[in-house]
Amino acid sequence: MTRLTLVRGDITEQSVDAVVNAANSSLLGGGGVDGAIHRRGGPDILAACRDLRASHYGGGLPTGAAVATTAGRLPARWVIHTVGPVWSAHEDRSALLASCYVRSLAVADELGAATVAFPAISTGVYRWPMEDAARIAVEAVRGAETAVGEVRFVLFDDAAYRAFAARLN
Ligand code: APR
């Protein structure tokens, strides 16, 4: 049974087996979570991402997919990079957002990760409304078949924390 926990804080400070990055398809870094992970994790993460682009992901990592690299200097063993969908008022991309959580847990299972920290994927630059993103995230994790013992949602501000807490309780 997977425990779902909430933390108000910085995902780069979480001592877990795997930290999930809200990446973009280039895998070459960005702002928000992506920027923080590369800044704190150091150059080894970007080097591993470049190797992935040169080998399996020449066209970039598809939205909803997930892939793992070293965590570099982070207090974790792996970073699982996933690409969230950009929110759209005209198209329902909920399945792609749910896929980020389900695919990241599948990668965690392949790695043998027991603890996984997730940010609120797509709720920053990609503009997904927080309450809806929290609903999708919690439902996707609750519905996933995974051996991961703890899924830790790491929320960067009070509004995000409240939105996830409302879904968990
Ligand atoms: N720890 C935890 N959560 C964080 C952190 C952090 N250090 N920094 C930001 N967040 C929160 C944001 O407040 C937001 O709620 O993570 C959530 C996701 O925001 P983004 O990082 O902007 O990710 P996303 O909306 O998925 O957009 C991805 O942004 O940074 C670029 O390269 C990235 O192009 C990609 C896009």
Automatic annotation (TrEMBL):
InterPro entries tied to this protein: Macro_dom, Macro_dom-like
Coiled-coil annotated residue ranges, if any: none
Residue span, Macro domain: 1-169
Superkingdom of origin organism: Bacteria
Cited SUPFAM superfamilies: Macro domain-like
Stored Gene3D superfamilies: Leucine Aminopeptidase, subunit E, domain 1 (3.40.220.10)
PANTHER family for the chain: GANGLIOSIDE INDUCED DIFFERENTIATION ASSOCIATED PROTEIN 2-RELATED (PTHR11106), MACRO DOMAIN-CONTAINING PROTEIN (PTHR11106:SF27)
Protein name, entry field: Macro domain-containing protein
